[in-house]
Amino acid sequence: MSKESPGITVSKNKDFSEWYTQVVLKAELADYAPVKGLIVLRPDGYAIWESIRETLDKKFKSTGHKNGFLPVLIPESLLAKESDHFAGFNPEVFWVTHSGENEIGDRLALRPTSETLAYSMYSKWIQSWRDLPLKINFWNTALRAEIKATKPFLRTSEFLWQEGHTVHATQEEAEKEVMDILEIYKKTVQEELAIPVITGKKSDKEKFVGAVYTTTMESIMPDGKALQMGTSHFLGQNFSKPFEVKYLDKNNAETFAWQTSWGVSWRLIGAMIMVHGDDKGLVLPPRVAPIQIVIVPIYYNDKDADRVNAEADKVEKMLKDKGLRVHVDRRDQLTPGFKYNEWEMRGVPLRIEIGPKDLDKNKVMYATRHIKQKLDLPMDKIESEIDHILEKIQSEMFEAAKKMLADKTTQTSEYSEFRVALEKGCFVDAGWCGKKECEEKIKEDTMADIRVIPFGAGNSGKCVYCKGSSITNAIFGRAY
Fold first, then answer.
1. Residues spanned by the domain of 47
2. Are 457 and 200 in contact, with CB atoms under 8 Å apart?
3. Which part of the chain is the Aminoacyl-transfer RNA synthetases class-II family profile domain (predicted)?
4. Are residues 299 and 430 in the same domain?
5. What's the CA angle centered on 217, arms 213 and 218, to 5 degrees?
6. One domain for residues 330 and 432
Protein backbone atom coordinates (compact mmCIF):
# COMPACT_ATOMS: atom_id res chain seq x y z
CA MET A 1 0.00 0.00 0.00
CA SER A 2 1.42 3.39 -0.98
CA LYS A 3 1.57 5.86 1.91
CA GLU A 4 1.74 8.70 -0.62
CA SER A 5 -1.69 7.90 -2.05
CA PRO A 6 -4.16 10.35 -0.47
CA GLY A 7 -7.28 8.24 -0.96
CA ILE A 8 -8.40 4.63 -0.55
CA THR A 9 -6.97 2.65 -3.46
CA VAL A 10 -8.88 -0.64 -3.16
CA SER A 11 -12.54 -1.53 -3.18
CA LYS A 12 -14.21 -2.72 0.01
CA ASN A 13 -15.90 -5.53 -1.92
CA LYS A 14 -12.76 -6.73 -3.71
CA ASP A 15 -10.10 -6.67 -0.98
CA PHE A 16 -11.79 -6.18 2.36
CA SER A 17 -8.69 -6.71 4.48
CA GLU A 18 -6.53 -4.21 2.59
CA TRP A 19 -9.44 -1.74 2.43
CA TYR A 20 -9.83 -1.92 6.20
CA THR A 21 -6.12 -1.35 6.84
CA GLN A 22 -6.03 1.63 4.48
CA VAL A 23 -9.05 3.22 6.17
CA VAL A 24 -7.49 2.87 9.63
CA LEU A 25 -4.19 4.38 8.50
CA LYS A 26 -5.33 7.01 6.01
CA ALA A 27 -8.24 8.27 8.11
CA GLU A 28 -5.59 8.69 10.83
CA LEU A 29 -7.29 6.58 13.48
CA ALA A 30 -4.20 4.55 14.34
CA ASP A 31 -0.73 3.59 13.13
CA TYR A 32 1.56 0.63 13.63
CA ALA A 33 3.93 0.74 16.61
CA PRO A 34 7.59 -0.37 16.41
CA VAL A 35 6.71 -3.61 18.24
CA LYS A 36 4.80 -6.20 16.19
CA GLY A 37 1.22 -6.63 17.33
CA LEU A 38 0.90 -3.14 18.83
CA ILE A 39 -0.70 0.01 17.46
CA VAL A 40 -0.54 3.69 18.33
CA LEU A 41 -3.93 5.34 18.72
CA ARG A 42 -4.06 8.74 17.01
CA PRO A 43 -6.24 11.64 18.23
CA ASP A 44 -9.32 10.85 16.11
CA GLY A 45 -9.18 7.18 17.07
CA TYR A 46 -8.81 8.08 20.72
CA ALA A 47 -11.65 10.62 20.49
CA ILE A 48 -13.99 7.85 19.29
CA TRP A 49 -12.90 5.67 22.21
CA GLU A 50 -13.46 8.61 24.58
CA SER A 51 -17.01 8.98 23.27
CA ILE A 52 -17.74 5.28 23.88
CA ARG A 53 -16.10 5.47 27.29
CA GLU A 54 -18.02 8.56 28.37
CA THR A 55 -21.35 7.02 27.38
CA LEU A 56 -20.67 3.75 29.17
CA ASP A 57 -19.10 5.43 32.18
CA LYS A 58 -22.19 7.57 32.71
CA LYS A 59 -24.44 4.50 32.50
CA PHE A 60 -22.25 2.48 34.86
CA LYS A 61 -22.17 5.23 37.46
CA SER A 62 -25.94 5.72 37.23
CA THR A 63 -26.37 2.05 38.21
CA GLY A 64 -24.09 2.24 41.25
CA HIS A 65 -20.74 1.24 39.78
CA LYS A 66 -17.52 3.03 40.71
CA ASN A 67 -14.21 3.19 38.88
CA GLY A 68 -10.94 1.80 40.21
CA PHE A 69 -7.42 1.10 39.00
CA LEU A 70 -5.43 -2.14 38.88
CA PRO A 71 -1.69 -2.60 38.22
CA VAL A 72 -0.55 -4.35 35.08
CA LEU A 73 1.61 -7.07 36.72
CA ILE A 74 0.08 -10.23 38.21
CA PRO A 75 2.15 -12.91 40.05
CA GLU A 76 2.02 -16.34 38.44
CA SER A 77 1.12 -17.88 41.79
CA LEU A 78 -2.00 -15.71 41.91
CA LEU A 79 -3.07 -16.64 38.39
CA ALA A 80 -2.70 -20.33 39.24
CA LYS A 81 -5.26 -20.12 42.06
CA GLU A 82 -8.08 -20.65 39.52
CA SER A 83 -6.52 -23.42 37.45
CA ASP A 84 -9.09 -23.65 34.62
CA HIS A 85 -9.05 -19.88 34.13
CA PHE A 86 -5.25 -19.80 34.16
CA ALA A 87 -4.94 -22.66 31.67
CA GLY A 88 -7.25 -20.85 29.25
CA PHE A 89 -5.12 -17.71 29.18
CA ASN A 90 -1.63 -19.18 29.59
CA PRO A 91 -0.83 -19.45 25.83
CA GLU A 92 -1.51 -15.70 25.41
CA VAL A 93 0.36 -14.41 28.46
CA PHE A 94 3.40 -12.15 28.26
CA TRP A 95 5.75 -12.91 31.16
CA VAL A 96 8.16 -10.61 33.00
CA THR A 97 11.07 -12.69 34.30
CA HIS A 98 13.80 -10.12 35.05
CA SER A 99 14.30 -6.83 36.85
CA GLY A 100 17.36 -5.39 35.15
CA GLU A 101 19.79 -8.30 34.98
CA ASN A 102 18.31 -10.13 37.94
CA GLU A 103 15.71 -12.90 37.81
CA ILE A 104 12.64 -11.99 39.86
CA GLY A 105 11.64 -15.47 41.04
CA ASP A 106 7.85 -15.77 40.77
CA ARG A 107 7.12 -14.78 37.17
CA LEU A 108 4.88 -11.78 36.63
CA ALA A 109 2.17 -11.82 33.96
CA LEU A 110 1.32 -8.70 32.01
CA ARG A 111 -2.42 -8.53 32.71
CA PRO A 112 -4.42 -10.61 30.15
CA THR A 113 -7.55 -10.01 32.27
CA SER A 114 -7.96 -9.04 35.91
CA GLU A 115 -10.21 -11.56 37.65
CA THR A 116 -7.46 -13.09 39.78
CA LEU A 117 -5.89 -9.75 40.72
CA ALA A 118 -9.20 -8.06 41.52
CA TYR A 119 -10.54 -10.94 43.57
CA SER A 120 -7.40 -11.28 45.68
CA MET A 121 -8.12 -7.68 46.71
CA TYR A 122 -11.87 -8.19 47.08
CA SER A 123 -11.24 -10.96 49.61
CA LYS A 124 -9.54 -8.33 51.81
CA TRP A 125 -12.19 -5.65 51.32
CA ILE A 126 -15.32 -7.74 51.91
CA GLN A 127 -16.10 -8.84 55.45
CA SER A 128 -19.86 -8.67 55.96
CA TRP A 129 -23.14 -8.35 54.09
CA ARG A 130 -22.87 -4.59 54.66
CA ASP A 131 -19.97 -4.48 52.15
CA LEU A 132 -22.17 -5.83 49.35
CA PRO A 133 -22.82 -5.38 46.55
CA LEU A 134 -19.33 -4.33 45.49
CA LYS A 135 -19.46 -3.01 41.93
CA ILE A 136 -16.19 -1.73 40.45
CA ASN A 137 -15.26 -1.00 36.85
CA PHE A 138 -11.71 -0.59 35.56
CA TRP A 139 -10.74 1.43 32.46
CA ASN A 140 -7.39 -0.03 31.49
CA THR A 141 -5.46 -2.06 28.94
CA ALA A 142 -5.00 -5.78 28.59
CA LEU A 143 -2.09 -7.60 26.98
CA ARG A 144 -2.39 -10.88 25.10
CA ALA A 145 0.12 -12.41 22.72
CA GLU A 146 -1.62 -11.78 19.39
CA ILE A 147 1.46 -11.74 17.19
CA LYS A 148 0.68 -13.81 14.07
CA ALA A 149 -2.72 -12.62 12.78
CA THR A 150 -2.91 -9.03 13.95
CA LYS A 151 -5.30 -6.36 12.69
CA PRO A 152 -5.74 -2.85 14.14
CA PHE A 153 -8.54 -2.69 16.75
CA LEU A 154 -9.57 -6.32 16.11
CA ARG A 155 -6.53 -8.33 17.16
CA THR A 156 -3.64 -6.55 18.83
CA SER A 157 -1.32 -7.59 21.64
CA GLU A 158 -2.39 -4.64 23.78
CA PHE A 159 -5.85 -3.12 23.69
CA LEU A 160 -7.96 -0.56 25.48
CA TRP A 161 -11.01 -1.89 27.26
CA GLN A 162 -13.13 -1.72 30.36
CA GLU A 163 -13.64 -4.66 32.64
CA GLY A 164 -16.21 -4.70 35.40
CA HIS A 165 -16.02 -7.01 38.41
CA THR A 166 -18.89 -7.21 40.85
CA VAL A 167 -19.65 -9.15 44.02
CA HIS A 168 -23.15 -9.95 45.30
CA ALA A 169 -24.81 -11.61 48.26
CA THR A 170 -27.16 -13.75 46.17
CA GLN A 171 -27.16 -15.66 42.93
CA GLU A 172 -30.29 -13.83 41.77
CA GLU A 173 -28.69 -10.43 42.26
CA ALA A 174 -25.55 -11.47 40.40
CA GLU A 175 -27.50 -12.90 37.46
CA LYS A 176 -29.54 -9.71 37.25
CA GLU A 177 -26.27 -7.76 37.07
CA VAL A 178 -25.14 -9.90 34.13
CA MET A 179 -28.28 -9.08 32.17
CA ASP A 180 -28.37 -5.40 33.14
CA ILE A 181 -24.83 -4.90 31.86
CA LEU A 182 -25.52 -6.75 28.61
CA GLU A 183 -28.48 -4.43 28.01
CA ILE A 184 -26.29 -1.37 28.64
CA TYR A 185 -23.81 -2.69 26.08
CA LYS A 186 -26.53 -3.43 23.55
CA LYS A 187 -28.11 0.02 23.81
CA THR A 188 -24.72 1.75 23.58
CA VAL A 189 -23.58 -0.17 20.50
CA GLN A 190 -26.90 0.19 18.70
CA GLU A 191 -27.66 3.79 19.66
CA GLU A 192 -24.15 5.29 19.53
CA LEU A 193 -22.31 3.17 16.93
CA ALA A 194 -25.42 2.33 14.85
CA ILE A 195 -24.56 -1.38 14.78
CA PRO A 196 -27.32 -3.97 15.42
CA VAL A 197 -26.39 -6.94 17.59
CA ILE A 198 -27.82 -10.34 18.51
CA THR A 199 -27.75 -11.05 22.24
CA GLY A 200 -27.85 -14.40 23.98
CA LYS A 201 -25.61 -17.01 25.61
CA LYS A 202 -22.43 -18.71 24.52
CA SER A 203 -22.29 -22.50 24.43
CA ASP A 204 -20.30 -24.18 27.21
CA LYS A 205 -17.49 -24.73 24.72
CA GLU A 206 -17.31 -21.03 23.86
CA LYS A 207 -17.99 -19.49 27.27
CA PHE A 208 -15.42 -17.49 29.22
CA VAL A 209 -12.97 -19.78 31.00
CA GLY A 210 -14.05 -20.00 34.64
CA ALA A 211 -17.59 -18.73 34.11
CA VAL A 212 -20.79 -20.62 34.86
CA TYR A 213 -22.14 -19.07 31.68
CA THR A 214 -21.36 -16.22 29.32
CA THR A 215 -23.81 -13.84 27.71
CA THR A 216 -22.71 -12.14 24.54
CA MET A 217 -23.65 -9.71 21.80
CA GLU A 218 -22.63 -10.65 18.28
CA SER A 219 -22.75 -8.94 14.93
CA ILE A 220 -21.73 -9.80 11.39
CA MET A 221 -19.32 -7.77 9.30
CA PRO A 222 -19.70 -7.02 5.56
CA ASP A 223 -17.15 -9.71 4.68
CA GLY A 224 -19.41 -12.31 6.33
CA LYS A 225 -17.34 -12.86 9.46
CA ALA A 226 -18.79 -12.70 12.94
CA LEU A 227 -17.47 -10.30 15.54
CA GLN A 228 -18.00 -10.64 19.27
CA MET A 229 -18.89 -7.13 20.40
CA GLY A 230 -18.93 -7.62 24.17
CA THR A 231 -19.54 -10.20 26.89
CA SER A 232 -21.02 -10.36 30.38
CA HIS A 233 -20.20 -13.40 32.51
CA PHE A 234 -21.93 -15.05 35.46
CA LEU A 235 -19.05 -16.44 37.51
CA GLY A 236 -21.17 -18.00 40.23
CA GLN A 237 -18.84 -18.97 43.09
CA ASN A 238 -16.11 -20.32 40.80
CA PHE A 239 -13.74 -17.53 41.82
CA SER A 240 -15.08 -16.63 45.26
CA LYS A 241 -14.15 -20.08 46.65
CA PRO A 242 -10.47 -20.26 45.54
CA PHE A 243 -9.96 -16.57 46.34
CA GLU A 244 -12.00 -16.70 49.56
CA VAL A 245 -14.33 -13.86 48.63
CA LYS A 246 -16.79 -14.44 51.45
CA TYR A 247 -18.82 -12.52 53.98
CA LEU A 248 -20.75 -12.85 57.21
CA ASP A 249 -24.46 -12.73 56.46
CA LYS A 250 -27.16 -11.20 58.68
CA ASN A 251 -27.24 -14.40 60.73
CA ASN A 252 -23.47 -14.17 61.24
CA ALA A 253 -22.89 -17.21 59.01
CA GLU A 254 -19.90 -17.22 56.68
CA THR A 255 -21.02 -17.35 53.03
CA PHE A 256 -19.20 -17.37 49.69
CA ALA A 257 -20.20 -14.47 47.46
CA TRP A 258 -21.58 -14.56 43.90
CA GLN A 259 -19.67 -12.75 41.17
CA THR A 260 -19.81 -11.32 37.66
CA SER A 261 -17.32 -9.89 35.20
CA TRP A 262 -17.92 -8.10 31.91
CA GLY A 263 -16.15 -6.01 29.28
CA VAL A 264 -15.96 -4.37 25.88
CA SER A 265 -12.85 -3.18 24.05
CA TRP A 266 -11.80 -0.90 21.25
CA ARG A 267 -12.83 -3.77 18.98
CA LEU A 268 -16.07 -1.76 18.78
CA ILE A 269 -14.18 0.85 16.75
CA GLY A 270 -13.06 -1.83 14.30
CA ALA A 271 -16.65 -3.00 13.93
CA MET A 272 -17.84 0.54 13.26
CA ILE A 273 -15.21 1.01 10.55
CA MET A 274 -16.15 -2.24 8.80
CA VAL A 275 -19.93 -1.92 9.03
CA HIS A 276 -20.27 1.69 7.86
CA GLY A 277 -17.20 2.42 5.74
CA ASP A 278 -17.22 2.57 1.93
CA ASP A 279 -14.79 2.91 -0.96
CA LYS A 280 -14.23 6.58 -0.09
CA GLY A 281 -13.11 5.65 3.43
CA LEU A 282 -14.51 6.05 6.90
CA VAL A 283 -18.18 6.78 7.60
CA LEU A 284 -18.83 7.90 11.17
CA PRO A 285 -22.13 7.91 13.07
CA PRO A 286 -22.71 11.49 14.29
CA ARG A 287 -22.90 10.53 17.97
CA VAL A 288 -19.30 9.29 18.10
CA ALA A 289 -17.70 11.39 15.34
CA PRO A 290 -14.82 13.56 16.62
CA ILE A 291 -15.97 16.19 14.10
CA GLN A 292 -19.69 16.05 13.43
CA ILE A 293 -19.79 18.93 10.94
CA VAL A 294 -17.06 20.36 8.74
CA ILE A 295 -17.64 23.78 7.18
CA VAL A 296 -15.87 24.46 3.87
CA PRO A 297 -15.75 28.12 2.80
CA ILE A 298 -15.56 28.50 -1.01
CA TYR A 299 -14.13 31.65 -2.64
CA TYR A 300 -11.77 32.62 -5.43
CA ASN A 301 -10.88 36.23 -4.63
CA ASP A 302 -10.22 38.41 -1.59
CA LYS A 303 -13.53 40.23 -1.84
CA ASP A 304 -15.53 37.03 -1.59
CA ALA A 305 -13.15 35.61 1.03
CA ASP A 306 -14.03 38.23 3.63
CA ARG A 307 -17.77 37.78 3.55
CA VAL A 308 -17.66 33.97 3.11
CA ASN A 309 -15.28 33.56 6.04
CA ALA A 310 -17.37 35.91 8.15
CA GLU A 311 -20.47 33.78 7.50
CA ALA A 312 -18.50 30.56 8.16
CA ASP A 313 -17.41 31.98 11.51
CA LYS A 314 -20.99 32.89 12.33
CA VAL A 315 -22.30 29.40 11.47
CA GLU A 316 -19.44 27.78 13.41
CA LYS A 317 -20.25 29.76 16.55
CA MET A 318 -23.97 29.02 16.23
CA LEU A 319 -23.36 25.28 15.97
CA LYS A 320 -20.74 25.16 18.72
CA ASP A 321 -23.10 27.04 21.01
CA LYS A 322 -25.50 24.12 20.48
CA GLY A 323 -22.79 21.77 21.77
CA LEU A 324 -21.91 20.32 18.37
CA ARG A 325 -18.38 19.36 17.32
CA VAL A 326 -17.58 21.63 14.37
CA HIS A 327 -14.48 22.41 12.32
CA VAL A 328 -13.98 25.10 9.67
CA ASP A 329 -11.47 24.12 6.98
CA ARG A 330 -9.65 27.42 6.36
CA ARG A 331 -6.71 25.98 4.39
CA ASP A 332 -6.34 28.41 1.48
CA GLN A 333 -3.69 26.33 -0.29
CA LEU A 334 -6.12 23.48 -1.02
CA THR A 335 -9.00 23.34 -3.48
CA PRO A 336 -12.57 22.70 -2.28
CA GLY A 337 -12.57 19.37 -4.15
CA PHE A 338 -9.46 18.18 -2.32
CA LYS A 339 -11.04 19.15 0.98
CA TYR A 340 -14.26 17.30 0.15
CA ASN A 341 -12.35 14.11 -0.61
CA GLU A 342 -10.25 14.37 2.53
CA TRP A 343 -13.19 14.93 4.86
CA GLU A 344 -15.11 12.14 3.16
CA MET A 345 -12.18 9.77 3.76
CA ARG A 346 -12.10 10.82 7.42
CA GLY A 347 -15.80 10.07 7.72
CA VAL A 348 -17.20 13.40 8.91
CA PRO A 349 -21.00 12.88 8.88
CA LEU A 350 -22.02 16.30 7.57
CA ARG A 351 -20.34 18.90 5.38
CA ILE A 352 -21.60 22.46 4.99
CA GLU A 353 -20.43 24.42 1.94
CA ILE A 354 -20.62 28.21 1.96
CA GLY A 355 -19.81 30.19 -1.18
CA PRO A 356 -20.65 33.67 -2.54
CA LYS A 357 -23.55 32.39 -4.62
CA ASP A 358 -24.96 30.67 -1.54
CA LEU A 359 -24.75 33.94 0.39
CA ASP A 360 -26.53 35.77 -2.40
CA LYS A 361 -29.40 33.29 -2.02
CA ASN A 362 -29.22 33.35 1.79
CA LYS A 363 -28.57 29.60 2.02
CA VAL A 364 -25.87 26.97 2.42
CA MET A 365 -25.34 23.61 0.75
CA TYR A 366 -24.97 20.54 2.98
CA ALA A 367 -23.75 17.06 2.06
CA THR A 368 -24.35 13.90 4.07
CA ARG A 369 -21.44 11.48 4.16
CA HIS A 370 -23.36 8.19 4.50
CA ILE A 371 -25.46 8.48 1.33
CA LYS A 372 -23.63 11.38 -0.37
CA GLN A 373 -26.78 13.50 -0.62
CA LYS A 374 -26.45 17.25 -1.29
CA LEU A 375 -29.25 19.63 -0.36
CA ASP A 376 -29.83 23.33 0.19
CA LEU A 377 -30.57 24.70 3.65
CA PRO A 378 -31.79 28.29 4.26
CA MET A 379 -29.55 30.29 6.58
CA ASP A 380 -32.37 30.94 9.01
CA LYS A 381 -33.12 27.19 9.26
CA ILE A 382 -29.61 25.99 10.16
CA GLU A 383 -29.98 26.31 13.91
CA SER A 384 -33.39 24.66 14.07
CA GLU A 385 -32.79 21.90 11.50
CA ILE A 386 -29.23 20.75 12.15
CA ASP A 387 -30.04 18.42 15.06
CA HIS A 388 -32.78 16.74 13.00
CA ILE A 389 -30.35 16.26 10.10
CA LEU A 390 -27.75 14.61 12.33
CA GLU A 391 -30.32 12.35 13.99
CA LYS A 392 -31.62 11.34 10.57
CA ILE A 393 -28.09 10.36 9.54
CA GLN A 394 -27.67 8.32 12.73
CA SER A 395 -31.01 6.56 12.21
CA GLU A 396 -30.43 5.81 8.53
CA MET A 397 -27.00 4.34 9.27
CA PHE A 398 -28.50 2.00 11.86
CA GLU A 399 -31.29 0.93 9.51
CA ALA A 400 -28.79 0.19 6.74
CA ALA A 401 -26.69 -1.91 9.12
CA LYS A 402 -29.81 -3.70 10.38
CA LYS A 403 -30.72 -4.60 6.80
CA MET A 404 -27.22 -6.00 6.24
CA LEU A 405 -27.57 -8.20 9.34
CA ALA A 406 -30.95 -9.47 8.13
CA ASP A 407 -29.64 -10.09 4.60
CA LYS A 408 -26.67 -12.01 5.97
CA THR A 409 -28.70 -14.25 8.29
CA THR A 410 -30.31 -17.39 6.96
CA GLN A 411 -32.17 -20.30 8.55
CA THR A 412 -31.88 -23.92 7.49
CA SER A 413 -32.23 -27.45 8.81
CA GLU A 414 -30.19 -29.06 6.01
CA TYR A 415 -26.44 -29.42 6.48
CA SER A 416 -25.69 -28.98 2.76
CA GLU A 417 -27.51 -25.63 2.80
CA PHE A 418 -25.78 -24.80 6.08
CA ARG A 419 -22.36 -25.17 4.44
CA VAL A 420 -23.35 -23.16 1.37
CA ALA A 421 -24.64 -20.29 3.54
CA LEU A 422 -21.37 -20.20 5.48
CA GLU A 423 -19.39 -20.06 2.23
CA LYS A 424 -21.49 -17.07 1.19
CA GLY A 425 -20.58 -15.30 4.45
CA CYS A 426 -23.77 -15.63 6.46
CA PHE A 427 -24.91 -16.21 9.99
CA VAL A 428 -26.79 -19.50 9.98
CA ASP A 429 -29.72 -20.03 12.33
CA ALA A 430 -29.93 -23.80 12.78
CA GLY A 431 -30.97 -26.49 15.26
CA TRP A 432 -28.40 -27.90 17.69
CA CYS A 433 -28.68 -31.00 19.86
CA GLY A 434 -26.60 -29.48 22.65
CA LYS A 435 -23.77 -31.99 22.26
CA LYS A 436 -20.21 -30.71 22.26
CA GLU A 437 -19.29 -33.44 19.75
CA CYS A 438 -21.57 -31.96 17.07
CA GLU A 439 -20.30 -28.47 17.81
CA GLU A 440 -16.70 -29.61 17.39
CA LYS A 441 -17.44 -31.58 14.21
CA ILE A 442 -19.10 -28.54 12.65
CA LYS A 443 -16.09 -26.42 13.60
CA GLU A 444 -13.69 -28.98 12.15
CA ASP A 445 -15.68 -29.29 8.94
CA THR A 446 -16.64 -25.67 8.27
CA MET A 447 -14.50 -23.43 10.54
CA ALA A 448 -17.77 -22.12 12.00
CA ASP A 449 -18.70 -22.15 15.64
CA ILE A 450 -21.73 -21.24 17.72
CA ARG A 451 -21.56 -17.48 18.00
CA VAL A 452 -24.65 -17.07 20.16
CA ILE A 453 -27.72 -18.92 21.37
CA PRO A 454 -30.18 -16.02 21.15
CA PHE A 455 -32.49 -15.21 24.00
CA GLY A 456 -35.87 -16.57 23.02
CA ALA A 457 -34.34 -18.75 20.30
CA GLY A 458 -36.70 -21.07 18.49
CA ASN A 459 -36.27 -24.81 18.06
CA SER A 460 -36.46 -26.31 14.59
CA GLY A 461 -36.70 -29.80 16.12
CA LYS A 462 -33.56 -31.48 14.83
CA CYS A 463 -29.83 -30.88 14.95
CA VAL A 464 -28.48 -29.58 11.64
CA TYR A 465 -25.47 -31.91 11.92
CA CYS A 466 -26.50 -35.22 13.52
CA LYS A 467 -30.27 -34.96 12.83
CA GLY A 468 -30.99 -35.91 16.43
CA SER A 469 -33.48 -33.92 18.51
CA SER A 470 -32.41 -30.34 18.99
CA ILE A 471 -32.60 -28.49 22.30
CA THR A 472 -32.49 -25.05 20.68
CA ASN A 473 -31.55 -23.15 17.57
CA ALA A 474 -28.19 -21.35 17.58
CA ILE A 475 -26.47 -18.81 15.37
CA PHE A 476 -23.40 -20.29 13.68
CA GLY A 477 -20.74 -18.24 11.92
CA ARG A 478 -17.08 -17.93 11.04
CA ALA A 479 -15.33 -15.40 13.23
CA TYR A 480 -12.34 -13.12 13.31
1. 16-276
2. yes
3. 37-285
4. no
5. 120
6. no
Kind of pairing between the strands at 73-75 and 94-99: unpaired
184: left (phi over 0), alpha (psi -120 to 50) or beta: alpha
Within 13 Å of residue 443, how many CA atoms lie on the same side as its CB?
A: 12
CB 455 within 8 A of CB 179: no
Residue 86 has a pLDDT of: 60
Residue 347 pairs in a beta bridge with none
**Which residue type does 247 have?**
Y
Residue 123 — pLDDT band, cuts 50, 70, 90?
very high
- What is the pLDDT, as a whole number, of residue 3? 40
Identify whether residues 180 and 231 lie together within a single domain. Answer: yes
Answer yes or no: do 136 and 245 share one domain.
yes
Regarding pTM above 0.90, the answer is yes
Residue 75: phi and psi, rounded to 5, are -60, 140
- Average pLDDT value for residue range 421-435: 98
Q: What percent of the chain has pLDDT over 90?
A: 92
Do 377 and 429 belong to one domain? no
Q: What is the rounded CA–CA span in Å between residue 280 and residue 6?
A: 11
Four-CA torsion 43, 49, 52, 55, nearest 10 degrees: -60
Mean pLDDT of the chain: 95
Polymer length of the chain: 480
Q: What integer pLDDT is reported at residue 149 of this predicted model?
A: 76
How many Cβ atoms sit within 10 Å of the Cβ of residue 464?
25
276, 302, 331 — which closes off a domain?
276
Instruction: Give CA–CA dist 390/195, Å, rounded.
Output: 16
Residue 166 vs residues 47, 239, 337, 468: alpha-carbon distances, Å: 28, 12, 53, 40
Task: Say how far apart CA 398 and CA 411 lie, in whole Å.
Answer: 23
Q: Characterize the bridge pairing of strands 409-411 and 427-432.
A: parallel
